[in-house]
User: What shape does this take?
Amino acid sequence: MLGKYFKHSLLKKIANRAGTPVYVYSAPAFLKQISTYKKAFKGLDPLFCYAMKANSSGALCALAAKAGWGADVVSGGELYRALKAGFKPGNIIFSGVGKTPAELEYALKTGIMFINAESMEEVLELERVAARLKVRAPLSLRINPDVDPHTHKFISTGRLGSKFGVSFEEALKIYMYAAESAHLNPVGAQFHIGSQVHKAGPYALAAGRLAAFIVKLASRGVNLKYADVGGGWGVKEGDEMPDPAALAKAVGSVFAGTGLKLVLEPGRSVAAPAGLLLTAVIYRKQSGKKNFIVADAAMNDLVRPALYGAKHPVALIGPGGEEKVFDLVGPVCESGDFLAQGVRLPEPAAGQLIAIYSAGAYGFSMSSQYNSRPRAAEVLITGPTSWRLIRRRETYKDLTACEI
Ligand SMILES: Cc1ncc(COP(=O)(O)O)c(C=O)c1O
Assistant: This one.
């Protein structure tokens, strides 16, 4: 399904010019996801804050900013990138369980829309920073709605007992405290139940709990403006479009007509289908009964298969030999270094290209220099035959650039 955005002939040209491994993104595919979200939520008039952690490439973020989206950032570094990419400060929200005083100061000086705080201690720190700057900090609390999103345990965040958010009981105390503070302005409430959530049911449950809580707060004199339902809408690997209409229905039926501004933080569902990792075959080998393709991309480039057992569709570019079942692995010295396992492919020749699809999210953004491997280049396809390099390949010099 994603093939139409990534023509094999174009991928070959890109690999020839930019080398491999290389992340290839499609601007038309990215923008299609954005417009599908907009259509699904038409009438609810939400603010979409693109979760930059999924892919913080300046070129992609600039597309989201130009489309009128805001940004969800989780570090001072992401805030810096968001501003550079052109997101309006008033459309930026700051999430994360451990924002430092310096990061809170940066956010307040920037004048972002609100900060999603996750503990009483963080709220007290925010109050101190705001007092020092002589401002009122726009505060939202990440609330843990204790809802099971039925996803991988590493990306499940909405159950009590996870490190994320505060319980409704604790949130009530914090909001009452904030309402009395000269330097805190409680404006919103948020949840984020996890990532790769494929059903709307958990959202409906969490949204219902959040809405009831917001009503309770109003009865105590604290009137919020924003209801933020986080991100996490799942995307089937290899699929072009997860239809967010079910999500819109689930949260829309709860918040429509409440006067609250709905905020969403989608990341993966926007970026994943819009990118692939292109790698070249170095060697083939056999071990026992297993056939291996050793490619020039590795877990340092794409860690999702090793970390979450993620399954990315792979395709050989060009004709191959006899079809066989392969493990696609990289050169890193770890048995966990695999990109795909047990995949059926025509036997490739050394030097042939393999595309690893649905790699636009949590691919490059989670990549590292492990094994002292310079990070991959990134390319953006802008039209049927046009593309440009948006990040150069790192060099050996880059590996030691920060050492003193
Ligand atoms: C607070 C928050 N918002 C949004 C997201 C984005 O989730 P996804 O990329 O699955 O849409 C995450 C992901 O971890 C998150 O922690």
